[in-house]
């Protein structure tokens, strides 16, 4: 069934069991785990073939919806087809031991940010920025 692009859910449904039953069988039987892994690879190859076939279409041929194909691939095979965003932070971080009073002060600042969205240090001492 993997050679037809079928998912683990479709395979489980075809043989009348739940997906978690397949997972249990994979844990209990290494040969079954290998068969399921092979079925997943066959399904991946089938879906990749669909995309490749759809890229080289003639004007009168059947058209592939590339957005739908891409979405299907990222949903079915997230390890192989997913967009990954990388976030890099720069700057410095000062690590120091805080006293209990300093910890309480930092927590109060964080509470103020959570409530007002503004750090206390950003508010002028005269409160002129307050509305």
Q: Can you tell me about this structure?
A:
The structure is a single chain. With 131 residues, this protein is an all-alpha fold. 55% of the residues lie in helices and 0% in strands. The longest helix has 26 residues, at 30-55. The model has no long low-confidence stretch (mean pLDDT 80).
Keywords:
131 residues, mainly alpha
Q: Quick recap of the structure?
A:
By secondary structure, the protein is mostly helical.
Write down the overall geometry: elongated
Tally of helical segments: 5
Give the helix/strand class: mainly alpha
Low-confidence sequence ranges: none
The helix content, as a percent range, equals 40-55%
The total strand number stands at: 0
Compressed to H and E, one letter per element, the order equals HHHHH
Question: Biggest β-sheet: count, sense, barrel?
Answer: none
Overall mean pLDDT stands at: 80
Q: Percent of residues in beta strands?
A: under 5%
Q: How far is the N terminus from the C terminus?
A: 65 Å
Radius of gyration: 27 Å
List strands and helices in order, with pairings.
Elements: H1 8-15, H2 19-28, H3 30-55, H4 66-76, H5 100-116
């Amino acid at each position: 069934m993997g050679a037809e692009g079928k998912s683990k859910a479709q395979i489980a449904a075809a043989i009348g069991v739940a997906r978690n039953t397949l997972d249990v069988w994979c844990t209990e039987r290494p040969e079954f785990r290998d068969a399921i892994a092979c079925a997943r690879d066959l399904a991946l190859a089938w879906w990749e073939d669909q995309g490749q076939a759809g890229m080289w279409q003639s004007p009168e041929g059947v058209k592939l919806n590339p957005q739908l194909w891409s979405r299907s691939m990222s949903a079915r095979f997230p390890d192989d087809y997913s967009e990954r965003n990388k976030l890099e932070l720069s700057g410095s971080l000062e690590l120091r031991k805080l006293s209990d009073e300093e910890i309480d002060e930092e927590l109060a600042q964080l509470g103020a940010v959570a409530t007002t969205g503004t750090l206390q240090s950003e508010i002028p001492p005269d409160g002129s920025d307050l509305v």
